[in-house]
Amino acid sequence: MDIAIVGTGYVGLVSGACFAELGANVTCVDVDEHKIQRLLAGEVPIYEPGLDALVMRNVQAGRLHFTTELAEVLPSVEVVFSAVGTPPDEDGSADLKYVLQVAHTIGQNMTKYLVVVTKSTVPVGTARKVKAVITDELAKRGLDVEFDVASNPEFLKEGNAIDDFMKPDRVVVGVESERAKDVLTRLYKPMLLNNFRVLFMDIPSAEMTKYAANSMLATRISFMNDVANLCELVGADVNMVRKGIGSDSRIGSKFLYSGCGYGGSCFPKDVKALIHTAAQHGYDMRVLNAVEAVNEYQKNILFEKFLKHFGGDVKGRRVALWGLAFKPGTDDMREAPALVLINSLLTAGCEVVAYDPVAMDECRRRIGDKIKYAKNLYDTVIDADAIFHVTEWKEFRMPSWEVIRRSMKPSPVLFDGRNVFDPTELDGIQYVRIG
């Protein structure tokens, strides 16, 4: 099957490479000429484990192509996926201008039946707007060309996206015609052989499913952070509490880890967008408003512990920052807790030395040289008063604590924002965790 995917960001490029791996003939389209030139030269512009090899393999096999011209590929494809960005507006709503630009281009150039699929995370009602734009553009051309719209939200976890695509928990597809359902069934048929569920539903339900799923996961995180903060006040251990409630089959253990807040491209944006959608319909999402408030509070908690530990005397102190990305397995720093912490530390007059296995270039792009960047985690701790563990990269789990303690100033302290270290192994380094 010939398909086009518009947008070569995280979702579009991963989806395009994976569809090609399954045997589809895929053309990825992007208006960013520099990005397309890099892809044509074999450079993958985002960090995702395994993606470089997957892209290269399918380009060499002739199944994966790149272009800046959507109009040129429309005559040869059956399905067009829209995977462009939907950044948040100032009011928290999703900005649909790129999604609607794609719809205009399709309506201005299509000549035969197409299934137009929204893969970006978009509010309920977006498919209806896409359909109206395409219909209007066809009318301007005096054409009556049949087409269908559909919704196929992505559920890719950064750092595990390829496995999530190839072996998903479920594939959610919203359609409004049997013809569109048949086309998308053929596209996903290679996955159907693996006996996983493709869930067909109406389009509004598919659009809502993505927001509801991410909001539920964000809710679990904020709930446990709230519980962790209370544990500290009453003398309980949040790790024990997590095990106690996670063993309940009705609750489960996933997304019950307390920490210094969630970030990334999905949870913060999607929670805000769902709150905004509800407000547009006169409804107050009280639980999600609380989820967002807890998360904003939690992003400051490591700095507050730092202030308390040193009695407010923090100006001029040198601190090591372990991790910059919002989670391990990615270089994404959108809404990252590390950015909030860095801002607080710099405002307080601290010197910050950071290390992250993949996200330091992205941090430089965002904040420049306001902080120092180290070659490894050991370089960060030289003459440091404190360590902040912010992103739980695996390479941070078993360092030589003796070497670290000897490199730091007297009375060193570790603020663990992810609760992964054993305080009995820290060789004289004071340990402060969450909950």
Counting DSSP H or I runs of 4 or more residues, the number of helices is 17
Please state the overall shape, judged from the principal axes of the Cα atoms. elongated
The whole-number mean of residue pLDDT values reads 94
Main beta sheet strand tally, sense and closure: 6 strands, parallel
What percent of residues are in strands?
A: 5-15%
Tell me which CATH architecture of the largest domain applies here: 3-Layer(aba) Sandwich
Please give the domain count.
Answer: 3
CATH topology of the largest domain: Rossmann fold
Helix content: 40-55%
User: Order of strands across the widest beta sheet?
Assistant: 3-2-1-4-5-6
Point out poorly predicted stretches.
Answer: none
What labels describe this entry?
single chain; 435 residues; alpha/beta; Rossmann fold; 6-stranded parallel β-sheet; elongated
Task: Provide an overview of this structure.
With 435 residues, the chain is an alpha/beta fold. The chain has 3 domains: 2-201, NAD(P)-binding Rossmann-like Domain (Rossmann fold), CATH 3.40.50; 211-298, NAD(P)-binding Rossmann-like Domain (Rossmann fold, 3-Layer(aba) Sandwich), CATH 3.40.50; 301-433, 3-Layer(aba) Sandwich (Rossmann fold), CATH 3.40.50. Helix content is 44%, strand content 14%. It has 17 helices and 14 strands. It has helices at residues 10-21, 33-40, 51-60, 70-73, 97-109, 126-140, 161-166, 178-192, 203-234, 238-246, 267-280, 286-298, 301-309, 337-347, 360-367, 377-380, 401-407; strands at 2-6, 25-29, 64-67, 79-82, 114-118, 147-151, 170-174, 197-201, 318-322, 351-355, 372-373, 386-389, 413-416, 430-433. A 6-stranded parallel beta sheet has the order 3-2-1-4-5-6, sandwiched between helices. Strands 11-10-9-12-13-14 form a 6-stranded parallel beta sheet. Strand 5 (114-118), helix 6 (126-140) and strand 6 (147-151) form a beta-alpha-beta unit. Helix 11 packs antiparallel against helix 12. It is elongated, with a radius of gyration of 24 Å. The relative contact order is 0.09. The mean pLDDT is 94.
